[in-house]
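Much of our argument rests on the idea that a fold can be written as discrete symbols. Part of our work consisted of pairing the sequence of a single chain with a tokenised description of its backbone. We regard such an encoding as a compact summary of how the chain folds. The amino acid sequence and the backbone structure tokens for this protein are reproduced below.
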Amino acid sequence: MKKIYKQKAVAFTGVSNSGKTTTIVKLANILQDKNNKVVIIKHDPKDKAVFDKEGKDSFKFSQTKADVVITSPLRTTIFKNSHSTIDEIISAVTPFDYLLVEGLKTVDLPRICICRQKIDKNYFEVSDTLCIDDTIDKTLLPKDINILDLNDTDEILSWIDINAKEVRYV
């Protein structure tokens, strides 16, 4: 029987070191343990990410500035030396059950703002819900925004299942 993929997408935002990556990793592991295919997109606005190890063939290829595809029995890695739109990326990684996007504030996806230790009110207008822990004073939060418990992955996953955007690309 052919698997039918959910194709649900949601984004995460928040200040540096708020716990976005940790939260996404936890959620991805839980979803995959339940036999879901998960794709993660990480926005790197300052182009700081480093790929591969110096001296390896794949590193040498990537240094040519050509687009490079490295394939093995277990994975395929694409080094593309130009920007891709979210639609192009989704098309390349389809099919999936859940797409978890870290960053990309301009992308039209339901968005969870992770807040730990501090609050940046600038994120409120681009977020559909706040996900906080007990380091955040709830009295400082807007009354009209949904709040999730950062330590309750079941609550976060439930919100995602209800609110994530269904995306279909082929």
In short: Residues 86 and 107 are 7 Å apart (CA to CA). The mean pLDDT is 86. Helices lie at 20-33, 57-62, 86-93, 153-163. The beta strands are 8-13, 38-42, 68-71, 76-79, 98-102, 111-115, 129-132, 146-149, 165-166.
